[in-house]
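User: Hello! I'm new to structural biology and keep hearing that structure can be predicted from sequence alone. Could you demonstrate with Signal recognition particle protein? Please show me the input and the output so I can see what each looks like.

Assistant: Of course. The first part below is the input, the amino acid sequence of Signal recognition particle protein. The second part is the output, the predicted structure written as tokens.
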Amino acid sequence: GLSTRLQETFQRLRGKGKLTEDDVKEAMREVRLALLEADVNFKVVKEFVEKVRERAVGQEVLQSLTPGQQVIKIVNDELTELMGGTQSRIALASKPPTVIMMVGLQGAGKTTTTGKLANLLKKQNRYPLLAACDIYRPAAIKQLQVLGEQVKTQVFSMGDQVSPVDIAKNAVEHAKMHGFDYVLIDTAGRLHIDEALMDELKKIKEAVNPDEILLVVDAMTGQDAVNVAENFHQQLGITGTILTKLDGDTRGGAALSIRSVTGTPVKFAGMGEKLDALEPFHPDRMASRILGMGDVLSLIEKAQANVDQEKAQEVGKKLMSGEFTLEDFLDQMQQIKKMGPLQDLLRMIPGLGNDKALQNVNIDDKQIARVEAIICSMTPKERQDPKVMNASRRRRIATGSGTSVQEVNRLLNQFADMQKMMKQLPGLAKKMGKKKGKK
Ligand code: GDP
Ligand code: MG
């Protein structure tokens, strides 16, 4: 499947130290094949791969400690973006009831999903009415009625001798009169899209002016689902899709393409036959699922941690060259919660890990917030060159940061000490390197 295939590709990248443009090219070829194999629309694949390549060949990856992980993160980000980025909710009518038309091919899961959606709405203390507009499929009305009983929601039916357009119109009237805030219209499907079906749906649309037309598609049908979505959208103008049967061994292709091809979001995901198996669709979670869940998620976290570590090493270099300013110090303060204490940071400097002197460089965590406030109250010029700090500037900073002049003085003295010490470090590091070399 898609997940295994992509994982194998990333597995190969994982061992790499640095990522060359060729590596990225090869990885992207694999990603492209994997997506195509999973029935993702070829136009979508082309754009996607191009986007990832652009980001991956950039500095971000070349500087990264583990480029493979970085590429995974980029692919994950872009997959999420491809599926709409954030979760998309149901549009509400300005005046109730909100009318939702459920459309799609036969067997896609319209009727089941109508019941599931009613169940979800009831849990949010909403009051939905279900309209039985599939008069063709034997027992379709009965199926909806059974679901309605389970959810304890009223089903509006006029039998199978009245036109679906009239049933829909009457259902909305009924909802208005009886204070329902949603009407879910369960329509008929066909095995294939045909004119009669589309005509009927268009007429229902005209008659009730729905707030949402949700296309229910079977995620198992891959590229077909995408074609169906494109066709329905052209003819009817859908407002979103619901992907069903994502609980099965489905290929991820449909989820990836539908958003791009129709320009409308996937709003819900069907995760099983039971009534509570409908979830709001989360693009980020779907991206993780496509990439293979747990393993990759933890890898992404690690990749993130590595980026921080990289920053830490940069700061370490600055420390040793004596270029460390109050500006860097502030930067450090703001990252310190993420990265841990400054001592740990200093330990990352090669050759200094066990230095006794460093263990005495102590920064009390409780002081961090005050120090941060002090530095934030300085002008950029003051941060760059603390020597300009006269008495009146110190008073201004103390007032601005809600601290005292004494505290400002203490910080500036500590910083000056630290800078002095740091300037001695390169020599120290060399000395220690020599010791190791002799051994
Ligand atoms: P309709 O013809 O579009 O109304 O489709 P139905 O609602 O009658 O569903 C067709 C079949 O798909 C039924 O057997 C449902 O139980 C099943 N089904 C619908 N949604 C899901 C889902 O999310 N997961 C699984 N596993 N089965 C589903
Ligand atoms: Mg049905």
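User: So the tokens describe the shape?

Assistant: Right, they're a compact way of writing down the 3D structure. Reading them back into a model, for example: The first helix runs from residue 2 to 14.
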